[in-house]
Amino acid sequence: ARELAEKGFLTSSCCPAFVSYIEKSFPTLRPFVSHNLSPMAEVARFIKGTDPDAKIIFIGPCTAKKQEFQREEVRPWIDCVLTFEELQAWFDSKDLDLPALDEDVLDNASYFGRIFARSGGLTDAVRQALIERGLDKGFEYRPISCDGIEQCRAALFKASKNVLPNNFIEGMACVGGCIGGAGTIADPARTAIQLNKYMKEAPFTDPEQSPYMSEIHVLKDDPNFEL
Fold first, then answer.
1. What is the pairing mode between strands 143-147 and 168-172?
2. 3-state secondary structure of 225
3. Which of 82, 133, 157, 182 lies in disulfide reach of 86, CB 3.0 to 4.6 Å?
4. Beta carbons of 109 and 115 less than 8 angstroms apart
């Protein structure tokens, strides 16, 4: 949020396929890609900072993550990337009956943390971050959420010609966002419904309300902690 307010124009860095598309097709816009690594890489970097011996395996519907984790700036933090398809094949090879296993409760993520998986989620999270940091007072947020690579192409082309009225581009190469990734095993439309339900069940809105955040702040204040 602060980088957006300072630069005046920014694109997201969450989708590796979107970032790669900018680098190859719109290189002049590369300086405007958010300096943050993707959520996958940032979380992994934090985990490695707390436990250098930890092995990080990312599991998701995104096949582009397999290319991303080989990048120089990401490779130190990720040990392996699996798609949901690959995970399902592994389960099948072990004759695991998932419905027969006990379920646990996933209640450690905020509302704005849960919405990243769908198109438009990051746009809403950035708006909230601007408000929380008091940056919305002197900065007009004009985002555009690009759902699929064709919408990304159109927005980036306009931005490259300085005719895009928006100052933040949320780019998702897959239609629907991450939930529409090539390595998914579920219908994206059904997944969107389930995700919306999961969002509404979030126990808190602000990530700072998570009990895990106090542990993170303590670690960051430790002079021996490296991130």
1. parallel
2. coil
3. 82
4. no
Query: Do the Cβ atoms of 59 and 37 come closer than 8 Å?
Result: no
Residues 6+ apart with CB under 8 A from 46: 216, 227
Query: CA 227 to CA 219: how far, in whole Å?
Result: 10
Residues 31 and 33: their CA atoms lie apart, in Å, by 6
pTM of the model: 0.86
Whether the Cβ atoms of residue 155 and residue 164 lie closer than 8 Å to each other: yes
Asked if residues 46 and 67 have their Cβ atoms less than 8 Å apart, the reply is no
Contact 90, 67 (CB under 8 A): no
User: How far is 69 from 51, CA to CA, in rounded Å?
Assistant: 19
First to last CA, the chain: 20
Q: Give me 98's structure tokens.
A: 């998932």
H helix runs in 100-147, sequence order = 111-114, 121-132
- Cα distance between residue 153 and residue 221, in whole Å: 42
